[in-house]
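Retry 2 of 3 after timeout on previous attempt. Resubmitting C-alpha cells to design endpoint.
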C-alpha cells in the first residue's frame, strides 16, 4: 500500500508582506499531478494545514480545491490538526466527510481514531493523533491527570490509549516535536525544549508520519519521518530541496521510503555581492528575478534607498542585509550589573545599539529623551 506523506502546508502564510497563496496553490496542483502518476492509496496530512487558527476565506478555498482534487481521484485523505490549526474548525463536518474518504481526526477526547484499509498483504491500520499539549491530555483523561507532568508523560499517556495489533501494519499520523529533529527558523518554538518527546514512543509502528518540523528528515530510524514543508518558508531553508515523501508498506516489516522532488513557482534564495555586482545584467539574466530573495550587499557604505532600487530588478526581494566592516564589528554590550541604576535613555541606547550595531545619532537621542519626558509627565 502506497501513501503520500505531507504536512505543514501553512496555507495562507505570508513571508513579510508577501502572500504565499499563489505559490501554495501551484505546489498543491503539482502534488495532484504527482498523484496522477503515482496513484497512491492515500494521503497522510500531518497537521498545520493552515497558518492561522482562523484562516482567511482565500486560504480555505485553496485547501478545499486540493481536497476536491483528491476526492475526484478517489484518493483517501487522513488528516490531523497541528499547533497552527483550530481543531474545532478543522474537524467541522468530519463525520460526513469521512464517507467521501476525507478522514479528519475529531476533537481529542482521550481516544485515537483508527481507520483500517486492506490490500494483498492484509490490514493497514492508520491511527490519527492530533496535536496535543499536556493540558489537553489532562482534561481528556481526567482520572489519570496526575500522571501528566510534562510533554513526554502526556504523549506517553495518550499513546497508551492506542490499541495496536502487532500482526498488522500500523501507521501513526502525529504532529509533535520528536527528540533529535532539526528545526528551522519558520517554526513556532516553545521555550527551550519543553515540547520534545522521545522517539521511542513510536517503536510499535511500521511508519510514523510526523508534522511540525519544516525540514525533511528521519528521526532515529528510516520509518519515523518528517516530510517537511512543501515550500520554503524561511531563509534557513534556502538550501533545502522540498519534496513529497512516498511510503510503501509491503508485507509486515518491509517498508520502503522515497521522495518526489517539488519545484516551486518562485524559489526562496540568498544572493550576495556588491550593489554593482548584483545589479549587473550578467549577474541576474540567467536566473529568476521573480524568486523570493535575501540580498546581502558587501558595500562598505549603505546604498541609499537600496531596497527600493533593488526591487526594480528583484520585485520579490524580502530582506536586504549588509556584510561589511561595520556589521562585522563586535558590538556586544556587557550585561548590565543588576545593582547598577541606569536611566531609561541609557537602557534604550543599549537596546538600539544591540539591534542596529551602531549608536543612536544625536537627533535620535534628542527625540527619545523628549519622548521619555512626555511619558513621565
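Retry 2 succeeded. Sequence:
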Amino acid at each position: 500500500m502506497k501513501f503520500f506523506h505531507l504536512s505543514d502546508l501553512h496555507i495562507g502564510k505570508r513571508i513579510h508582506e508577501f502572500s504565499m497563496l499563489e505559490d501554495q496553490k501551484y505546489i498543491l496542483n503539482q502534488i495532484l499531478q504527482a498523484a496522477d502518476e503515482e496513484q497512491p492509496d492515500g494521503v497522510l496530512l500531518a497537521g498545520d494545514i493552515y497558518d492561522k487558527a482562523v484562516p482567511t476565506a482565500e486560504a480555505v478555498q485553496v485547501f478545499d480545491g486540493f481536497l476536491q482534487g483528491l476526492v475526484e481521484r478517489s484518493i483517501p485523505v487522513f488528516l490531523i490538526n497541528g499547533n497552527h490549526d483550530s481543531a474545532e474548525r478543522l474537524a467541522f463536518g468530519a463525520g460526513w466527510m469521512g464517507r467521501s474518504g476525507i478522514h479528519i481526526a475529531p476533537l481529542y477526547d482521550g481516544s485515537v481514531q483508527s481507520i483500517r484499509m486492506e490490500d494483498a498483504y492484509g490490514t493497514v491500520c492508520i491511527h490519527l493523533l492530533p496535536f496535543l499539549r499536556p493540558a489537553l491530555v489532562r482534561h481528556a483523561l481526567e482520572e489519570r491527570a496526575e500522571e501528566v507532568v510534562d510533554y513526554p508523560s502526556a504523549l506517553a499517556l495518550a499513546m497508551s490509549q492506542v490499541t495496536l495489533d502487532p500482526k498488522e501494519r500500523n501507521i501513526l499520523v502525529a504532529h509533535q516535536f520528536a527528540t533529535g529533529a532539526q528545526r528551522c527558523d519558520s517554526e513556532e518554538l516553545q521555550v527551550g525544549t519543553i515540547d520534545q518527546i522521545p522517539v521511542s514512543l513510536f517503536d510499535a509502528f511500521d511508519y510514523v508520519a510526523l508534522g511540525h518540523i519544516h525540514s525533511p528528515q528521519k528521526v532515529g530510524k528510516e520509518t519515523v519521518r518528517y516530510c517537511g514543508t512543501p515550500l520554503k518558508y524561511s531563509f534557513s531553508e534556502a538550501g533545502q530541496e522540498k519534496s513529497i515523501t512516498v511510503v510503501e508498506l509491503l508485507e509486515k516489516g518491509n517498508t520502503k521510503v522515497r521522495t518526489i522532488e517539488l519545484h516551486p513557482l518562485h524559489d526562496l534564495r540568498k544572493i550576495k555581492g556588491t550593489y554593482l555586482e548584483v545589479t549587473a545584467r550578467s549577474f541576474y539574466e540567467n536566473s529568476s528575478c521573480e524568486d523570493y530573495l535575501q540580498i546581502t550587499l558587501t558595500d562598505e557604505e549603505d546604498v541609499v534607498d537600496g531596497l527600493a532600487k533593488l526591487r526594480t530588478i528583484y520585485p520579490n526581494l524580502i530582506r536586504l542585509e549588509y556584510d561589511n566592516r561595520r556589521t562585522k564589528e563586535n558590538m556586544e554590550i556587557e550585561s548590565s550589573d543588576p545593582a547598577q541604576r541606569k536611566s531609561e535613555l541609557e537602557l534604550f541606547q543599549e537596546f538600539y545599539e544591540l539591534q542596529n550595531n551602531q549608536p543612536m545619532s544625536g537627533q535620535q537621542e534628542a527625540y527619545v529623551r523628549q519622548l521619555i519626558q512626555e511619558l513621565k509627565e
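Attempt log closed. The radius of gyration is 25 Å.
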